[in-house]
Design a protein that fits this description.
This protein has 111 residues and is of the alpha+beta class. It has 2 domains: 67 residues, Orthogonal Bundle (Arc Repressor Mutant, subunit A), CATH 1.10.10.10; 36 residues. Helix content is 64%, strand content 13%. It contains 5 helices and 3 strands; from the N terminus they run ααβααββα. Strands 1-3-2 form a 3-stranded antiparallel beta sheet. It is rod-shaped. 14% of the residues are buried.
């Protein structure tokens, strides 16, 4: 099953794992030491992150090391950017409207 980045960041545990791995690569046991959930549960979360392309797992001897692939966040950033532009335009238009209304209020005689 191919998952997407949005599924990965929807879960707080996966976000914490990404935060850990963004600082430095770690093996599965080191990652699991940061959580109260079981090692198999961490492995499941790592599998989802790997399927999304956010984590790369490499084998060194008997250990599996995980590192973050933060380039995948460009997909999220691009999606968010369209809404940032949309809302900035709306807020700019609201600001312009309020400025015009304030000018009209200044010109109108006091009651």
């Amino acid at each position: 099953m191919r998952r997407d980045v949005f599924q990965a960041i929807a879960d707080p545990t996966r976000r914490e794992i990404i935060d850990l791995l963004a600082r430095n690569p770690q093996n599965l046991n080191s990652i699991a030491d940061n959580f109260t959930i079981s090692r198999p549960a961490i492995s499941k979360q790592i599998k989802i992150l790997t399927q999304c392309g956010l984590v790369i797992v490499t084998r060194q001897g008997r250990e599996h090391y995980c590192s973050a692939n933060l380039k995948k966040f460009n997909e999220v950033a691009a999606w968010i950017e369209q809404y940032r532009v949309f809302w900035n335009n709306k807020l700019d238009a609201l600001g312009d409207f309020l400025e015009k209304e304030a000018e009209v209020d200044k010109r109108s005689p006091m009651k």
